[in-house]
């Protein structure tokens, strides 16, 4: 009688020893979501219609798009935009780290100075700042380096020394530094105080502690918003026409369209390039995030602790899928032991 | 005197000498004129109720906290200051860091660097602080991990180690700087009971090898077995001190009796 009970009619199941303790797998009718399907179908149809319509629509002038997307002038401008983005972001990050550290020092003068910087550069539009940088040579016609009230060691004409390209980078970088400072500060504050103590107790200097211990750990918090800032910066470069710098992607495509009277296809060309760059940046961000997630949570490429019985599971009837039970504690979630199926 | 001919006066000076050390946080006086002495190779256990200032005292010894009055000497060196012509000069951060190299510290919450593997944690300070050659450092670090029973865990990140394993890595990390003094601040308090033993075993081994240690702990069994002296602190003062067996089985002071009746 008891053997009868054990052999249950689960499809393809071989009854294991002590199978009486196993429960039936649930075979319920799945809940249907008809409206979800309807909604999805409507969206897809709408999207396809839009694409089909756009492909044939006269105003887009796709032949112009194809002609200009790899035009020398456009690709050069795209490179300029990329350079503006990279240079100003690099400067902004360095300056942001400095400002963040200044904000965190106990020195009240240094502290307020950093606060004042943030107040000014975050409190005014970047467009206005760029116009100001363009007017630098009118405000300061020459730049002197030396001891105040003495004969300067170097002196140069502002106009000659600083091109509009340089001014655009300065303008973008100084504005961005204010935002980066807040991002870095939040990152530094996110690191446990015990880390600083442990490093100091080992005899590491302030700089070593910062560079080797605190900053790498804060990266996990810093990188995602910084990625957003880079993408945002790429697009903000379209404002450098305020300096006025006119060799960036947006300004250049506007200039070309002014000659050809085809603004719409050239806007599409510019958009394609912007999208191309942001896509690359997003991939880069993904890999950076992975790199700085070291030691946090699970990593598939690290062996898991098999000795402490990470994999303890019962094999349910018939399914062929091992149940994986996580051990207590914060070990890594186990990888699928079955391998590819 | 024959001071000039003997190797050095410092060699006979105690490893740690606290002379009327006081420390306040604002108006909160946490340490009140603490005086005590730890000889070379001695293991001292520091016990006392929460808030009595044990951690603060340990942190003062390696200058993580600055004392307000009194003197702290480690192996004959004044901690945190240089004394010239009867005046005290605050040490530059670089010199303070140099003093800390010789003092290992182990924390209640391990404080391992989570972005580095166990091996990298142990190698970090010898590499960056002592600027030793990498091959040599790695060899030493692996030997240290083997010594704390974790040779096979060298490439694990702290998050993938148990609490007891993490604390043993933390001990190896401190030992990597070849300190002459080890400070332990409740090294087993954050551990599950079944993991306490493995950490205490490592510490017993250290004591046997002659390491000078100050251990803040609630493990009275360990104190009785390993410690050469036991100090009971309460409210920022040393209430009672002496041979661990004696203090534990026959406490003189009422506050010691009250505390021990709770923890024993
Ligand atoms: N950085 C600080 N700022 C202000 N007060 C502090 C600081 N550190 C410690 N204290 C105070 O000093 C007192 C002693 O703290 P300490 O950590 O030394 O005690 P403890 O004996 O180690 O206690 P526990 O057993 O809980 O670790 C406490 O009242 C605490 O609030
Ligand atoms: Mg404490």
From TrEMBL, chain A:
Entry-linked SUPFAM superfamilies: MetI-like
Keywords: Amino-acid transport, Cell membrane, Membrane, Transmembrane, Transmembrane helix, Transport
InterPro entries: AA_ABC_transptr_permease_3TM (IPR010065), ArtM/GltK/GlnP/TcyL/YhdX-like (IPR043429), MetI-like (IPR000515), MetI-like_sf (IPR035906)
Residue ranges with Pro residues bias: 329-341
Membrane-spanning parts: 37-56, 77-102, 114-139, 160-181, 264-284
Record carries keyword Transmembrane helix: yes
GO biological process, one term: amino acid transport
Entry keyword annotation includes Magnesium: no
Protein localization: Cell membrane
Region (Disordered): 1-21, 309-341
Source superkingdom: Bacteria
GO cellular component: ATP-binding cassette (ABC) transporter complex
Chain intervals with Low complexity compositional bias: 9-21
GO molecular function, one term: transmembrane transporter activity
Membrane topology summary: Multi-pass membrane protein
Main location group: membrane
Pfam families: BPD_transp_1
Family the entry assigns: Belongs to the binding-protein-dependent transport system permease family.
Protein name, per record: Amino acid ABC transporter membrane protein, PAAT family
Organism: Cryobacterium psychrotolerans
Lineage, broadest ranks: Bacteria, Bacillati, Actinomycetota, Actinomycetes, Micrococcales
Automatic annotation (TrEMBL), chain B:
Catalytic activity: a polar amino acid(out) + ATP + H2O = a polar amino acid(in) + ADP + phosphate + H(+)
Keywords: ATP-binding, Nucleotide-binding, Transport
Domain of life: Bacteria
Nucleotide-binding in keyword set: yes
Residue span(s) of domain ABC transporter: 16-260
PROSITE patterns found in the cross-reference section: ABC_TRANSPORTER_1 (PS00211), ABC_TRANSPORTER_2 (PS50893)
EC number of the protein: 7.4.2.1
One Pfam family cited in the UniProt record for this chain: ABC_tran
Gene Ontology terms for molecular function: ATP binding; ATP hydrolysis activity; ATPase-coupled polar amino acid-transporter activity
Family: Belongs to the ABC transporter superfamily.
Name of the protein in question: ABC-type polar-amino-acid transporter
